[in-house]
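new request in #modeling-help
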Amino acid sequence: MAKVLIVDDEPNLRLLYETELRRAGYETMTASNAEQGLEYVDTMAPDLVILDIRMAGMDGIEALQRILDRDNTLPVILNTAYSSYRENFMTWSADAYVTKSSDVGELIDTVKSLLQQRLVEN
Amino acid sequence: MTGHPDHRDWRAETLLCGFEQSLLVQLVIDDETRIVLASEGAGRLFGWSRSDLIGQRLRQFAVPPSAIDSCQQSARCESGDPFELEFRTSSGSVVPVEVLCGHFVGPDGATLCYLFLDDHATRASLESLRTARLAKLSLLNQVSDALYGAHLTLEQVLEAVLICVAAGQGLRFNRAFLLLIDEAGQTLRGEIAIGPSNHAEAERIWQNLETEPVDLFEMMTTYDRSLRETDVAVNEIVRHLSVPLAEEDHFLIRAMNGRQPILVTGDFQAPGVDKVRELLGHDTCAVAPLTTHHGPVGVFLADNAISGSAITDLDLEFLQLFANQSANAIESSRLNRELERRLMDLRKAHRKQREDQQTLLRMERLSVMGETSAIVAHELRNPLVSIGGFARSLERNLPEGDSNREYAAIIVEEVGRLERIIHDLLDFIRPQKRLRKRVDCDQLIRQAVERMREQLEARNVGLQIDLQAGEVELNCHPGEIQQVMQNLVMNGAQAAADGGGTVRVTTRRIEGGVEIEVLDDGPGFAPEHADQLFSPFYSTRTTGSGLGLTICRQIIKAHGGVIRADNRSEGGARFVVVIPLPRPSGSD
């Protein structure tokens, strides 16, 4: 069962994503800030990371760089309330960019396709 | 006078001078009716020069000569009552006169007779001259009243004064030319002219003008009718009349600066005269300066080139009189025109300022929106995701038929609406720096619009597509253009829906671009809303974000195009989008 790490400082969103991802058949773990997220990447070997951008402390863009420094094959989905980050080239290195929506369908679909892709590549 | 060599009494001298110059017909004869003294008037009556009359016998002019034999014998003379006599003039005509006479003794003791001849013809012609003078003066007065009273344009004033110079009831010149100092103050330039180019025309026109009443406006109307086509020749001449003010010796400039009218007769010589004569094709003309208290304005030039009749001192006097009045009228209507021009400039500047202000206001609004929307995005989008997301989960988990499931669905729907507003807001402020590509115009529009067909049918709205742009490629961001089309079509569908109407989409090639129209047959929009249709948050509907048309304008503008809206004459609204085509080579 693939493990998905959710990094977001909004507890309600973490809960929503957890619920939906589990329902879709994934194992989940959550981190409430970027530092904790990086720690879990090192220690818990997730198969995919969902990363919020605007967070207190280290932001998602910096966290993304650090994750890629460790393992650039690990798929990362940037998930944010801001569509404007799409213009920031620093976000281009992420595997996907999904704007936050109450319809979690797009996020789940993206997770699914990235994991499948990874499976094929490996 | 007392120092005069022959020591004649100066009073006698003055009286004699007055007698001789008088236009009254006065004679002094001796007892053989020989003329000893004659007045100017007597010379004119008999058709002789005054000096030639001296020494002639008066009886030789009388009809019959026996009517005056010897003055002393005439009892009529003694009575002091006037009596009738007839005289033959040098031209052979017989003139009846009334005679008054009296005797006195001359310096050498001889008896002399003083005769005063009251000549009906002379009196009549003097009177008619006076009447004519009066008529002209009255016309001039009327003209000047009219010029000041009425709000005439400069052109009308110029025309009116020239008509008066030429009209039969006016100054009766054949042709009149008006030269004015140009606006740069450098040149005296021919402005306009009126007058016929030949005898036949002249006769027709002046006949008309003379029989019609003496009223400025009627004269102008008559002029319009009869002179319009005939003054081409004089206006050709006037265009060539141009003298730099620096040529101070030029007779026109001298007349103007010296404020003196000039009668240019055949033997008149001065710098510039010959060239003007050549232009006029005539030797004689009258020049009258136009002067206001600000200084010279221009000159009148008038001649009798058609009839060839002489210009009298009286004509010149009147021309100058009239010039003085015209100058002021011309000056004031020139000032008026200048004022109007400045007023227009001011209005334009004011309008521009207002537009700039509105643009500024709109930009300010947009920048505030940009800032607030960033906050909105974060502070609203996150909670909305949780609310909507869990509501979705609830809806899914509740059994069918449970009313709570329905309530959850309502939350999901409403949250969706709020999220769309936020999406529109963020789209609206996002900088448009995406890559463009070349796509077939009609194909792109068809794709975008066809996608809407189902939604329209669900609303019972028909869709007509008529794409005529031909094989044309737009250099654009296809997704954005499609968004514009979908917004416009949905907009039309919402307007048309009430009547179960139709939305029609057309394309066609125009100069330099493509024109796309989206037409509906709904109620249209109130004209006073036309300006606001594309403003943010302007919406007459209760649903939607109020940003749809604003985004459309933003996108079309980013593509270098324009979007506008109007009401169709047959009802409904029309949105027109014009997108310029990429230039043929290497410009993208």
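bot summary: Chain A has four helices and five strands.
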